[in-house]
């Protein structure tokens, strides 16, 4: 895929919604760099707290290790603080947030307060067997966070990031028994958001089971359409 023109206008909150392993992070990194806006992964923020040993990280770690969802008030506080920073003025991409109806409703209020208006929501649909294979094969760069997969998107040198040579690691929650819990949490707590955003008229489904470049093309098509409408 060619390099997209830099710094298009996003000017809104873009939400990447989908189950664990759907490719939200992979696509969010691409779109964030094309539009020059921050990629806000609540999972990455929480893992950062865990790595730094903060009080918040201490509360989140056992929940994340078990595949459950961290309480709404922890996540909402973190998100509201983050999007009030100046680098979010031109819009931003949420990856893995919101994940409960309470988070989605609170986000609407935050976006109103910060005068962002309605978000756009891209929903990545992928079947469970595909998700399990992707998650067990995922490796992430310890330095820059670049995402690989040993089955279908391997690095050039085994165990090392193509970009910066950083060590590639496996996430602790990518063990099969935790993946099962994460998929169950998605089904129960996050799936209702599909109907919620559909009713608001802002849901854009994509076939997330297609290859990475094909999914990227679908996402780009949706974003061009949204830009043309607004
Ligand atoms: P989080 O970090 O958000 O994890 P997740 O939602 O489970 O999603 P993943 O990061 O696992 O998957 P992804 O969709 O980004 O896929 P990726 O692009 O990496 O959350 C972790 C935990 O934090 C949660 O369990 C919870 O405890 C807590 N948390 C986070 N946010 C929270 C919130 N809002 N509220 C409460 N708790 C919260 O791709 C996966 C693999 O597939 C990669 O190897 C990639 O190379 C490959 N791949 C991607 N796309 C394709 C493709 N199209 N074809 C083939 N392979 C592909």
List the main descriptive attributes of the protein structure presented here:
single chain; alpha/beta; Rossmann fold; 5-stranded parallel beta sheet; 3-stranded antiparallel beta sheet; globular; binds BIS(adenosine)-5'-pentaphosphate
Topology (elements, then pairings):
Blueprint lengths: L12 E5 L6 H12 L3 E3 H11 L2 H12 L5 H12 L8 E4 L5 H13 L6 E6 L2 H10 E4 L5 E3 L18 E2 L6 H15 L1 H8 L3 E5 L4 H18 L1
Parallel strand pairs: 1-3, 1-4, 2-3, 4-8
Antiparallel strand pairs: 5-6, 5-7
Helix pairs in contact: 1-9, 2-3, 4-5, 6-7
The structure holds BIS(adenosine)-5'-pentaphosphate (AP5).
CATH level-1 class of the domain at 13-37 and 90-140 and 184-229: Alpha Beta
Dominant shape: globular
Tally of alpha and pi helices: 9
Strands across the major sheet, in which order? 2-3-1-4-8
CATH second-level architecture of the domain at 13-37 and 90-140 and 184-229:
3-Layer(aba) Sandwich
Spell out which ligands are present. Answer: BIS(adenosine)-5'-pentaphosphate
Biggest beta sheet attributes: 5 strands, parallel
| Helix percentage range | 40-55%
Question: How many β-strand runs?
Answer: 8
Low-confidence stretches: 1-7
Specify the CATH homologous superfamily of the domain at 13-37 and 90-140 and 184-229. Answer: P-loop containing nucleotide triphosphate hydrolases
Share of residues in strands: 5-15%
Stated plainly, the CATH topology of the domain at 13-37 and 90-140 and 184-229 is called Rossmann fold
Mean pLDDT: 94
Order of helices and strands: EHEHHHEHEHEEEHHEH
Structural class: alpha/beta
Distance from first to last alpha carbon: 26 Å
The whole-angstrom Rg is: 17 Å
């Amino acid at each position: 895929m060619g390099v997209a023109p830099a710094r298009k206008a996003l000017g809104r909150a873009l939400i990447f919604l989908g189950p664990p392993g759907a490719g939200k992070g992979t696509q969010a990194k691409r779109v964030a760099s094309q539009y020059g806006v921050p990629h806000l992964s609540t999972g990455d923020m929480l893992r950062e707290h865990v790595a730094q040993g903060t009080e918040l990280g201490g509360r989140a770690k056992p929940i994340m290790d078990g595949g459950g969802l961290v309480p709404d008030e922890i996540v909402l506080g973190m998100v509201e603080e983050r999007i009030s920073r100046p680098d979010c003025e031109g819009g931003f991409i949420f990856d893995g947030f919101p994940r409960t109806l309470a988070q989605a409703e609170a986000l609407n209020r935050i976006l109103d307060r910060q005068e962002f208006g309605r978000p756009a929501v891209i929903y990545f649909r992928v079947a469970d067997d595909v998700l399990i294979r992707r998650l067990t094969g995922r490796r992430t760069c310890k330095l820059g966070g670049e995402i690989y997969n040993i089955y279908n998107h391997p690095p050039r040198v085994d165990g090392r990031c193509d970009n910066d040579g950083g060590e590639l690691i496996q996430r602790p929650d990518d063990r099969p028994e935790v993946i099962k819990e994460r998929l169950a949490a998605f089904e129960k707590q996050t799936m209702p958001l599909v109907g919620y955003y559909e009713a608001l008229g802002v849901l854009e489904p994509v076939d997330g089971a297609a290859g990475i470049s094909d999914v990227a093309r679908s996402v780009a098509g949706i974003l061009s359409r949204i830009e043309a409408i607004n």
